[in-house]
Amino acid sequence: SEGSLYMKGRRWMELSLEEQRVYVMRLLDALEVTDRDKRLKVARAILYLAQGVFDECDTEADVLYWSRHNVFLLYDMGIFTALLELLSMEIDNNQACSSAVRKPAISLADSTELRVLLSIMYLMVETIRVETEGDSPERKAAREAFKTELGSPLYNGEPFALLLFTMVTKFCSMNAPHFPMKKVLLLLWKTILFTLGGFEELQEMKVRMREQLNLSPLPEDSIKVVRQMRAASPPASAMELIEQQQQQKRGRRSRRPLVKQDSLDTYNERDPFKNDDARDEEDDPEDVDSGIEGEVDPLDRDVIIQPPPPPPLRPPTERVSFPRGLPWAPKVRYILCCFWFTLYFLSFLMLFYSDIDTLVGLPRPIHESVKTLKQVSMETFLCQSESPLLIGQGEEEVEETPAEILYLGMLPSLSQYVIALLKLLLAAAPTSKAKTDSINILADVLPEEMPITVLQSMKLGIDVNRHKEIIVKAISALLLLLLKHFKLNHIYQFEYVAQHLVFANCIPLILKFFNQNIMSYISAKNSICALDFPHCVVHEMPELTAESLEAGDSNQFCWRNLFSCINLLRILNKITKWKHSRTMMLVVFKSAPILKRALKVKQAMMQLYVLKLLKIQTKYLGRQWRKSNMKTMSAIYQKVRHRLNDDWAYGNDIDARPWDFQAEECALRECIEKFNTRRYDKNQNSDFTPVDNCLQSVLGQRVDLPEDFHYSYEMWLEREVFSQPIQWEGLLQAQ
Known about the structure:
Elements: H1 17-30, H2 36-50, H3 60-76, H4 79-91, H5 94-102, H6 112-129, H7 137-151, H8 160-172, H9 181-196, H10 199-212, H11 222-228, H12 238-249, H13 276-282, H14 298-302, H15 316-321, H16 334-348, H17 364-384, H18 402-410, H19 414-428, H20 454-489, H21 491-503, H22 506-514, H23 518-522, H24 535-538, H25 546-551, H26 559-576, H27 580-588, H28 591-598, H29 604-617, H30 623-628, H31 630-639, H32 661-680, H33 695-699, H34 713-722, H35 728-734
């Protein structure tokens, strides 16, 4: 194996820690050789260590243990920095890029060095990111140091994530078609996840920031609420209704009536005010998972994702005092608060002139609105500080958070990054058709020699589908993380990214992704368990046959594809929420039937975000649609949070007006550009900056001159000073 480069016949497990460090140091020195083949051999030896010296292990647990041990050792010895230098060198290798561009077909052989380097870096980032109970204080300190290192502008003045973003844009611009995009996107996603934090860390950051701003605590933990939800049976399709009517005509009585709606939401389907007898009747085990239209279709039953068991019933007195049925605490929108707040000022303006602190007797939502108005006023004042009369008065202190550092680095090329990611998402979508001018995302999965047998063709087909699924998973998770963290850091950062997504046609792209047989996508089996790591290196490889490949694994659904679908729904929800023009885009693109088909997947979180997207456009779909989709309306009522002034179910809201997409987006874009100019444009108001008029101060300033300036100083003096006539009269007149 590659691990025996300097081992001289000794096993890695037999070496002491000091001997292992000496060995890694030799590998580090060997990475600097100029011979490309020798350097690749050393890199593969490092990859073998990062993978857990599997040739010496007997069980999968041993492989994982030694992989973790070796990864922390490699980081401690500075391997990651050396790998980063090699990666930068490979990215700037113009010879390899030009050779790949001229090739008619690109294969795995064109990206061997890049794939080895990216694999090591991915193993290091993912292994160090995940914290375990047995981690020592040294490992915890190494984790925090690595996290800070990745999120800080230490690599050529920019975070590590920006280097990976550059690889993505370079690939999509056809300048480097040999880049292994799957590995780049996975490493980019895990880097963002490590440096910015996942959803649980994001929830903790929300709580801390609300405490710092003296805001009321969150009414509930959204992660916990969603985890406790139960999936609902999907509404019946037209075909199912016809079949059931035919069964009734033949005299076959259905086991469950068609009009039953109590079991639509098995999370909270019971009315808390019913008597005990009625509750006992509903506890019939046959009705626990019953669908809206009776028996669930056998095809649907195969991919039902089992939710956690329901919480135990509370005593009757507690159920009456706190009614169940709505998992979310209702909220009130800012528009209503502004209305009452305006009335309050009109009534008491004469008594309390310019008083915005006396809020006695007003409900809590009004207090929240006042704080929001103060923040809006502060942002307006800061934007007005661009005036030459207010220079220096509107400066704000910006905390150098990892999200702030990342946004600052992404800002100059943000549109290119967004477009590149959406191009890759489009190319990896299962509904996309191959085009000659589209980018080739299969460069790091296609072998040099195409398969010649049926078994090889089936294996390659599974690899290609799995490859696309991983790309969709990485891009969807990456975009969602960026949106959520930028929204917490500053709302205009979130709006800037969201607007670029909208302008790059993200809304129709996601709808196109869901315009497929979503049940088949969720239950796809594009994986070969026998080839999964570390199973494949510990156990003997079984003989693969066409029958075993076609049967796939034993899982009834694919977590990877379910994860991607939920992420894409959440992205679509975030960029359209409370945006009238973007909501109308959902209506224009006829998203309602596409989203209704997605309700067939019986998973609570996915159904929640589908219902959210249906809710925001319900008022624009017309009375007939609402009348014929009452069960979907009931599901929205039971699962989605209520807004006290959101007239979503009737369509009587003032927002049901003609929409002007361009005007709304331009108004938002103006606010975003003012924010970016104020906070990040260092050259703003250069015409109004104070001028030093003191002669001694100006002449006393140090001016950096080139080293060879004194050689040509006399010539410069003669040409620029002595030979130039000075018009003193004109100078005096100008004064």
